[in-house]
Structures are given as C-alpha cells and as structure tokens.
Design brief:
Layout (H helix, E strand, L loop, with lengths): L3 H10 L2 H5 L7 H4 L2 H9 L5 E5 L5 H8 L3 E6 L2 H11 L4 E2 L10 E7 L7 H14 E12 L4 H13 L3 H9 L5 H10 L2 E7 L4 E8 L14 E4 L9 E6 L9 H15 L6 E5 L3 H12 L3 E7 L4 H9 L3 E5 L4 H16 L2 E2 L13 H11 L4 E5 L4 H9 L4 E7 L33 E5 L1 H15 L5 H14 L6 E6 L18
Parallel strand pairs: 1-2, 1-4, 2-3, 4-5, 9-17, 10-11, 10-13, 11-12, 14-15, 14-17, 15-16
Antiparallel strand pairs: 5-7, 6-7, 8-9
Helix pairs in contact: 1-6, 7-10, 8-9, 11-12, 12-13, 17-18
C-alpha cells in the first residue's frame, strides 16, 4: 500500500465515525445508508474471515456479532487504537499486500480497497485466490465507477458544490472502473457480482471458481421437461437425465454409496469386490473400486450389452460371463459362491439396504428441480431406485416400471430386449404397499419411445428410459394438473449393438 496514505489515516482516524454517520456534508453521499451497506456485506461472509483495513472497527463488530472468526489487519496505529477499543479484539499490523498468509474462507474490506493501484489490486486478488478455501469469496464494499464519464461528471458536480476535500480524494485515490474490477476478478479465477448500494458505493462479491474433479460428476444431473407428447390438461412430464453421471447411468449413485458404506463399516477385508449385474451397476462399482484401489469381479449374462461390458473392462473390472438363458439369478448365485469361497465383498445390490438409500440425494435434487411432485415413475432392475424414491415421495402417485418377462405384475419370468430393468424375484427391500401402480411395458413400446425421444426431443436414451416414458404417458391419462417426474437411467449409446433404434429388433 502506498505510504502517503498513512498520513491520511492519521487525519481520518478521529473523524472517520463522523464521516460514516453523515455528520460531514462533503462525505454524506459517499456513506449514505452506511449501516445497511456493511450489514449487506456481512451476509456474504463465512467461516474464517480476514478483514483488511478495519479502521475504527464498524464492519468488524458486525462480523463478530455473526459469530465469525475474524482476523482484522490494519496498517494505521491511530485507526487500530480506536478499532481495538470498540471491538475488544487485537488488530494485526499489515495491509492488503503485507500480512501473515494463511488459508481463509472470506477476505473482506469496506471503503479501503481504493488505496491500492490497479496493479496492486490485481496482485492482492491473486494472493487471496491462492489462500481461499473451497467455495471462498472476496467481499469489497467501496467506491467504484461504472465509467470514466460517470467519474468525471461526479467530480464536476461536487466541485460546483465546493466539496474540495471530496474532490481531492476523487482525483488522488485509486477508485477503479467496474470493468477493471471485472477483469481483475476473471484473471484470478473469480466470478464477479456487483450491486450498487448508493451513488458511490458498490458491493462487489468475487466467488472463487471451482474446477470439478471426476467424482464431482456423480449426482446433480439435469432435469428437463418433455413436451413433444400429448398430455391431459395441466399435466407436465419432467425427466431426470441420469446419463450425465460420470459413468453414464443412475447406478453411479449406487456404486458410490454401497462401497462407501462398506468401507465405513469395514466390510471390505480382502480388497476385492464382486457383483452380478447387467452392466450399469458394474460400471458404477468399477469407478469407485478404481478410486479406492479395490479389485472388482463382475458376473454378467453373456449376451447383455457388449458396450457396457467393454466399459467395465476399461475401468479395470474382471468380467465373468454366464449363460444368458440362465438369467440374472444364476449370475447372482455365481457371484455369491465366489464371495463365499474367496472372502470377496459381495455388494449384493438386489438385497442390500444400501441400494435404496443410495437415492436420497436424487430425491433431494428432484425437489430442488421441480418443487411439487405429484407422480414419480421409475423402472425396477434391482428395485433400489424406485424404493428409495418411493420412501421419500410418500404422498406422490408411485409408479414402478418393468418389461414383459418381469414378475412384479404377476407374470412369468422370461426374456426381454429392454435392458437394465426387469426382475426374476421380488426385491427383498421393496414393500409392496409402496407401489401405487405397476406398468408392464412391451419391448416394442419401449423401443418405439426410444426412437420417438430421439426424433421429437433430440434425446438419446436407453430402452429402460423408453419404457419409463411409456409408463408415465399411460398413467397420466388418469390424472390432470400433475407434475410427473420420470427417471431416465442411461443413454442409447451403450445399446447400439442391441439395435436399440430398430423397433422390430431385426
């Protein structure tokens, strides 16, 4: 900070509180609504706070009253003496550029940042970017100008009023243009938000940008509205696009939860995990096993999607193919047998209570996306997605979706082209009274909806998504004015070998 300002601080120290309370007419416009402005600034502060230029401690007191941990850094002994007496804490000696550097959640300043040149402002913001914790922010309440023309106009206005001290400040100190602050923020990795609170003062919030890591891509998937299909009066269909998860399906949520819970309990003792799956659960498990250096062995009926099997192998899983005609029950028996023989951890997605609990965050996301949910529609493979959501949306009309060849509606177990859903025995964790309706969808209807989603909505979805949409369209005919949420588990690209866009399966 430029040394000449230290003399200014000596002159201002005893008069500063008079200025901010409007008792000096020259500075009344600068500080009008002062208490309101610093209260607004404090709303954005969090955690460990570093306040630069606390002066006489007005902002500091607001921060302390919010229970925040505050380090107040003040270069002026005269200002600090007043501020320490007012706040009851010790001010550190230093300034925006010279201070004991340690991590913080918030850097904040009121009516002091203009003492830095634009180059110094850039350097300071760069320092704060390095020290801020995840999600940290810089808060600057100070005078800035929207344009050079605005600044010159104000100088002329206050010159005509004879406010010579204020005009001297405007000419001498380093009040930046808004575009300068935006540029400094962007260069140093911040999103910039500005709110003008009076003729002079702007509240500037610099939010540190965060670069996501791969596992941050599990969850928080998009919600879109389906509009290309005729609906009863007032009905709306919303689809949760789960192929945006890291591994490309809703089962990433399961893989993450089931392994994390097992690790927390100490259930994984041999370093090896085993499961029986058509593919998506295996992909989700492979991602998490890779992260924690666990070996994964997966039993898959041999004629299931070669794309999903290739993805599992690419992620490090060992694939054991079982005869397709013996179905998933046989694959599960083989996985259990292997676990019993070797001590590998059997994730047992079809029976583990950790399966339905994997979808609590999905339910929270749906509420955040849509608000009111009148109907929830989800397919049943293991039954975990439906069960988890049904427990959460107790007052909604809950529709479970299966293909022909699944047993939930009392039909016989048999083969089907629709992958990812369909059960051969009732899931242990699924109470029947959670279900309001079972929709059994033929392969041809599921694949037809896959093609229609592509042609009418530009959505490339898997066959279980097509079945879920058909189920939602069937059910909505009995209702009006409903918000209907449908889970689209994955995308079509992992089923191309299964001729997913060929309705007749030729």
């Amino acid at each position: 900070m430029s040394l000449p300002f230290m003399d200014i601080f000596k002159d201002w120290a005893s008069e500063y509180d008079n200025f901010v309370t409007g008792q000096d007419p020259e500075y009344k416009d600068v500080f009008v609504n002062y208490d309101f402005m610093i209260a607004q600034a404090v709303k954005y502060a969090k955690g460990d706070v570093v306040e630069f230029g606390p002066g006489t401690g007005n902002l500091t007191n607001y921060l302390l009253q919010q229970g925040l941990n505050v380090r107040a850094i003040e270069p002026s002994e005269e200002m600090a003496a007043i501020g320490e007496k007012k706040t009851g804490i010790t001010f550190e000696r230093g300034d925006f550029l010279n201070f004991k550097q340690q991590p913080a959640d918030t850097f904040i300043s009121s009516f002091a940042f203009h003492h830095l040149t634009d180059t110094e402002k850039d350097i300071a913001i760069g320092k704060y970017a390095e020290l801020l914790n995840e999600g940290g922010r810089v808060i600057i309440l100070d005078t800035i100008f929207n344009s050079e023309e605005e600044k010159q106009s104000m100088i002329e206005h206050y010159t005509s009023l004879g406010f010579n001290n204020l005009v001297e400040d405007l000419n001498r100190e380093y009040y930046p243009l808004k575009e300068t602050m935006e540029s400094i923020a962007s260069r140093n990795g911040f999103d910039y938000h500005d709110t003008q609170l009076n003729r002079f003062a702007h509240l500037q919030i610099l939010e540190k940008k965060t670069i996501k890591k791969p596992f941050d891509l599990i969850g928080h998937t998009p919600m879109i509205e389906i509009t290309a299909f005729p609906l009863n009066k007032g009905n709306r269909i919303f689809a949760k696009l789960e192929h945006h998860n890291l591994g490309g399906s809703v089962k990433d949520r399961l893989g993450l939860n089931i392994i994390m819970k097992a690790l927390d309990r100490g259930d994984i003792k041999s370093g090896q995990v085993v499961e029986a799956t058509a593919g998506n659960t295996g992909i989700g498990l492979a991602l998490v096993c890779q992260k924690f250096d666990l070996k994964l062995r997966v039993y898959v009926p041999e004629k299931f999607s070669v794309e999903k099997q290739s993805i599992m192998r690419a992620l490090g899983a060992e694939i054991i193919n079982t005869p397709t005609e013996k179905g998933m029950l046989f694959a599960r028996e083989e996985a259990l047998k292997y676990a019993q023989e070797t001590g590998a951890f059997f994730t047992n997605q079809f029976e583990s209570p950790d399966n339905p609990s994997s979808y609590e965050e999905l339910a929270n996301e749906i509420i955040a996306d849509v608000g009111r949910v009148d109907m929830i529609v989800a397919g049943a493979g293991s039954g975990g997605t439906f069960t988890g959501l049904a427990h959460y949306f107790k007052d909604a009309h809950k529709v479970i979706v299966e293909p022909e060849g699944s047993i939930l509606n009392g039909g016989a177990s048999g083969s089907h082209r629709t992958e990812g859903i369909g059960v051969e025995k009732w899931p242990d964790f699924l109470p029947k009274d959670l279900i309001d309706a079972v929709e059994t969808i033929s392969d041809i209807d599921a694949f037809t909806k896959v093609s229609e989603l592509a042609k009418l909505e530009g959505l490339m979805q898997g066959s279980s998504s097509g079945a879920a949409l058909q189920a939602a369209l069937n059910q909505q005919q009995h209702f009006t004015n409903q918000n209907i949420v449908v889970i689209f588990p994955d995308a079509s690209d992992r089923y191309l070998s299964q001729a997913i866009f060929n309705i007749k399966g030729e």
